[in-house]
Amino acid sequence: MKKYGILVVDDSAFMRRAICQILENDPLFTVVGIARNGLDAIEKVERLQPDLVTMDIEMPEMNGLAALDHIMKTFPTPIVMLSSFTKEGAKETVKALELGAVDFFLKDSLIKNQAENSQINEFLNRLKEIIEAKLPKVSYEKRVIETKTSTIFDSNQLQIQRASKNKRLAFDLVFIGCSTGGPSALKAILPYFPKDFPVPIVVAQHMPSGFTKPLADRFDSICELHVKEAQNGETILPGNIYIAPSGYQTQFEKKLDGTVQFIVNHQEDAKKTMFKPSINISLTSAAPIFAERLLVIILTGMGVDGMEGCGQVKKHRGTVFVEAEESCVVYGMPKAVLEAGFADGQFLLSKMFQQIMAVI
User: Fold this and answer.
1) What CATH superfamily classification does 4-132 receive?
2) Residue in 103, 97, 100 with CA at minimum distance from that of residue 122
3) Catalytically annotated residue among 51, 172, 305, 344
4) pLDDT in tens, 199-244
5) Which of 48, 76, 126, 219 could join 137 via S-S bond, C-beta 3.0 to 4.6 A?
6) Is 269 a catalytic residue?
7) Domain at 143-359, CATH class
8) pLDDT digits (tens, 9 = 90+) for 30-72
9) What EC class does the entry list (predicted)?
């Protein structure tokens, strides 16, 4: 049985021992090396060529962010950050995901719950899924500037439809769903919308509770449009990018005056899902409200969340674009939508923004 080789990077001897013990207790993993700081990690990634790296953020000599940035530019390797659940830790984790980290896991959930198998099993299963997804060894920059394109839909057809509507805007909402690899993919799209972009944008990114606010704050600092977490009862308005808050489900409700507001709550009675926010739940709510005036973009992500929701979007004559396999970190969610027959177009990440602008 083939074992997956993991490089464990942490300046704490206690954390290195704890993570190594967790990994070595699973027959599928073997620790091929440890590193005490970023410089050590860079050298060992190139020499040992691990299947995956677990990376601490705060380390002496070179921190995890600097090491991550260097590795992703020179020797791209799947990297999972081990983060602290603090305000500063959340900000740094968001930055790491933007730089190309595949995923992250909270240290406290591993160390404080070692007696509970659920958290450990979730950690190990996520590592397995990431490795078995056979992530393409391609840097973020190459994903964005790649010129080869893959399409199954002629966007001119949508432009003709737009012209037939007396030059009205073709869409009233742009909805973007993503998971693994999503923050770096969003960086290739969101900052390019001009400040006068006339359609509100809603983003559903799978993240643990407490991490979507730093994500919104980070994008607000680099985007022309205002970026914020969606709030319960808030009216959806142009000029804004709304991030669906983690730990909750975000749905839509049309008011008597014709405006649309967010319904953000725990949705305990909703269809059971492991994701909060769930793309399926959001799209199932949005589809009948916005109908043919809804544009959905499904970016990189593990699993199939979004497939059922896109089915509802197509049932109500909306439009769905998915990211092409060549630029995805994980071609799970886009593939599921495409294979179900719900995608109107498939585009590389480097082409997605211009395709959105072409049809708006």
Assistant:
1) Response regulator (3.40.50.2300)
2) 103
3) 305
4) 999 999 999 888 999 999 999 999 999 999 999 999 999 999 999 9
5) 76
6) no
7) alpha beta
8) 999 999 999 999 999 999 999 999 999 999 999 999 999 999 9
9) hydrolase
Instruction: Flag whether pLDDT at 165 surpasses 80.
Output: no
pLDDT score of 145 more than 80: no
The residue from 155, 179, 184, 246 that is catalytic is 179
Residues spanned by CATH 3.40.50.2300 within the chain?
A: 4-132
- The angle subtended at Cα 144 by Cα 143 and Cα 149, nearest 5°, is 80
- pTM of the full predicted structure? 0.86
Pairing status of strand 201-205 against strand 226-229:
unpaired
Two structure tokens written together for 8 = 């464990």
Q: Which of 148, 124, 184, 175 lies closest to 329 in space, CA to CA?
A: 184
The sign one gets for the Cα dihedral 129, 133, 139, 140 is: negative
Biggest alpha carbon–alpha carbon distance for the chain: 67
Task: Give the distance from CA 114 to its chain's centroid.
Answer: 28
Choosing from 10, 206, 285, 350, the catalytic residue is 206
Is there a catalytic annotation at residue 305? yes
